[in-house]
Amino acid sequence: QTDPNPKIRLCDKPNGQLRTALGQMQETLSRSQWLAGEHFSLADVNTVAFVHRMETLDGFDLANWPAVVR
Prior knowledge:
- By secondary structure, the protein is mostly helical.
- It has helices at 6-31, 42-56, 66-69.
- 64% of the residues lie in helices and 0% in strands.
């Protein structure tokens, strides 16, 4: 049987992966100022645009990941 709305099904997996990644970042940043060690690094640079973009999307609230947003 064909899924009547395949777009919803396809979006579920990436959304779950996104929330998992944000959770991992939240966990790390709640213990440390930076993502990959004691100093600012490419890991931090690489996430700035990603987090900024997420903040601009309607319907996606980053309030559950306050350490990521700071």
